[in-house]
Amino acid sequence: MHLMMWDKLNRYADLVERAKVPVMLDPPPWLAQYAVDIAQVKGHALRWTRSLRWQLESLQEVQPRLDRLLKLLDSHQAHLLDFPLDELNRKKYTHLHHKLQQTVTSLLDLHEACQTGLLEFHAHLQHDRFVLERGAREGWVFFSEAIATSYQTETEVHELIQNVQQKIGKWKNLLERNDMI
User: Fold this and answer.
1) Rg (CA), the chain
2) CB neighbours (10 Å) of residue 41?
3) Using one digit for the tens of pLDDT, what is the confidence trace for 55-66?
4) pTM for the full model?
C-alpha cells in the first residue's frame, strides 16, 4: 500500500544518516553548532527508520486479522437473528464483541500515536532541510541529494498522515456503529 512511499522515505533517511560533517584542521566558528544541528537531523531520520516505519508496518499486519474477527462476529450475529435463544452462540458473540472492542480501541490508540509521530516528523522536515542546505553549500557528500529527496518525503509524509487520519476515522466509526464506546 505504501511501499513506494516507504522506499523514498527510506532513501531520505539513509542519505541523512550517511551525511557526515568532515573533520577540519581549522574549522570555522559555526561548525560546532552545525555538528549539533546535524545530529538532531539524523535523530529525526532515525525516528523514521527505527520507529515510525515499524509502527506503520505493524498496523498493516493487523488488518487481515481484524477482518477475520469482524466476519466471525457478523456470522454469530446472523445466527442470533435466526436462533435468538441459542445461549452458547450468544456467549460467543458477547465474547467476540468484547474482543473486537478491545482490539479496535488498541488500534485507535496505535494509529493516534503513529499520527503524532508522523506530524512531528513532518514538522521537522523543513527545518532539517535548512540544516542540510548548509552542508550542501559546503559541497559535502550526500547533503544535496538528501535535500532533493526531502521535498518528495515531505509530500509523502503528508499523504501518510492523511491515510492514518482516515484509519482513525474508520476505527472511531466502527466503535460508534457497534455501540462499543
Assistant:
1) 23
2) 23
3) 998 888 888 888
4) 0.84
